[in-house]
Amino acid sequence: MRLLYSFAWWLALPLVLGRLWLRGRKEPGYRQHMAERFGFYAGRPARQVLWVHAVSVGETRAAEPLVDALLRDYPDHAILLTHMTPTGRATGKSLFEKHGDRLMQCYLPYDTGFMVARFLKHFQPRICILMETEVWPNLIAQCVKHRVPVALVNARLSERSLAKAQRLSALMADAARGFSCVAAQTEADAERVRRFGAPNVSVTGSIKFDVTPPEAMLAKGAELRAMMGSKPVLLCASTREGEEDLILDALGNAGLEDALLVIVPRHPQRFDEVAAKVAARGLPVQRRSALAAPLAGNVRVLLGDSMGEMFAYYAACDVAFIGGSLLPLGGQNLIEACAVGKPVLIGPHTFNFSVVSEEAIAAGAALRVDDSAAMLDAAGRLLHDGVERSRMGGNAAAFACQHRGATGRTVALLKPLIS
User: Fold this and answer.
1) Are 383 and 389 in contact (CB under 8 A)?
2) Of 140, 126, 134, 110, nearest in space to 58 by CA
3) 291, 316 in Cβ contact below 8 A?
4) Each residue's pLDDT tens digit, 242-255
5) Does domain 215-402 have CATH number 3.40.50.2000?
6) Is 27's pLDDT higher than 80?
7) C-beta neighbour count of 282 within 10 angstroms
8) What is the rounded CA–CA span in Å between residue 102 and residue 184?
């Protein structure tokens, strides 16, 4: 089965490269460092290497507590942080530049045995640590062949993802057996991973709870809020394609004329598109990237077209809606909003974060809404009810605090593999 998978990869490579080049028209980063995607690299850290793979922005931000802990516990080692997207790479550069030459970034090669083998021979990592849902059959097989232990950490696997994986059950089961250990977020995630025969599966919780708001971002959030003025602020964070239309269409009947709507699209290549959607509806809009003075009083929408400032947006808002949940896209991470102590609204589709979403609702930190109109209605009530908003915000902060500790439990699982 893996031979067929590898053959499919080779057949698809021209299409993959064409798509990469086309995406580079909007995101130039896709056209940079292309040799790395084929396993060619210019250098390697002088120290022994601990390899962490974080595919994109969310996984990279989630990896921050783990990377910091590994660098603290293994002072003679360096971290190799690999990605698949330029936004993930840019996020990693922003988060980890504090570590200097103890952290190196590059792209992971495409999942062919030949390219992965070249990658492993070049960097000679002590361990491969995959974040969340990254299961690459040839990568795992080559790690087993080169005696590099593989750990899947902060692992999550929804029922939907499980159903997709079961269509290639032989291939995925073979890959799962190559794991040295799995650190799952919840017991439900652990049980789904065990169905594929993965050994040594433990429940450690979500590392994302250990991501603490940086003081610099909180200060930037305070500055941003001062520039927003006295209006109540609703943040729509990490919105996905189609959601902005739903929100903007419902805004006219929401009775939120006195509020400022902040929209931060999940993907930066959509910034211009979303700005055009707002302008097409006749709503005065200000782009964050061009904000150099206090907002004009008539501005209804602030477009968050900046990278690496999500904590600042959370700090600046009064209520946060978490995107990816109005449409069947699985939702996005609500933990960061809770960590800043903000009331959270989520839509009906949160299957990628089902357990944490339900726990946040049960803790009084979040409310689930059925659609965009209901979301704006709930936001309006909270924006104008300071007592309830404060109560939910306190619940959110307590919820985030009580679930911390996953990083320490994960590092304890990794230590026998590294040594």
Assistant:
1) yes
2) 134
3) no
4) 999 999 999 988 98
5) yes
6) yes
7) 9
8) 27
Place of tokens 């990869």: 9
H or E segment to which residue 107 belongs: strand 103-107
Q: Is the confidence at residue 43, as pLDDT, over 90?
A: no
- Please check whether residue 62 is in contact with residue 154, taking contact to mean a CB–CB distance below 8 angstroms: yes
CB distance 77 to 257 below 8 Å: no
Q: Report the amino acid identity of residue 270.
A: R
Q: How far is CA 182 from the centre of its chain?
A: 19
Q: Using CA atoms, how far apart are residues 132 and 55, in angstroms rounded to an integer?
A: 9
301 or 44, which is more confident?
301
Q: Give pLDDT, residue 91.
A: 92
> Could you report the per-residue pLDDT of 194-236, keeping only the tens digit for each?
988 899 999 999 999 998 899 999 999 999 999 999 999 999 9
Residue tagged active-site, from 27, 36, 59, 336: 59
User: Which pair of tokens denotes residue 393?
Assistant: 């915000």
Q: How far apart are CA 80 and CA 206, in angstroms?
A: 22
Does 215-402 match 15-206+404-418 at the fold level?
yes
Task: Determine the Cα–Cα distance for residues 352 and 329; give it in Å rounded to an integer.
Answer: 8
Q: Which tokens belong to 22?
A: 């086309």
Q: Which of 92, 124, 119 is nearest to 108 (CA)?
A: 119
- CA distance to 69, 313, 395, 406, per residue, from 211 (Å): 12, 16, 18, 10
309 is catalytic: no
Of 31, 8, 133, 127, nearest in space to 74 by CA: 127
Whole-angstrom distance, CA of residue 82 vs CA of residue 94 = 14
Are residues 78 and 292 in contact, defined by beta-carbon separation less than 8 angstroms? no
Q: What is the pLDDT of residues 113-133, one digit of tens each?
A: 999 999 999 999 999 999 998
Distance CA 96, CA 214 (A): 13
Confidence of residue 135 (pLDDT cuts 50, 70, 90): confident
CATH of domain 15-206+404-418: 3.40.50.11720
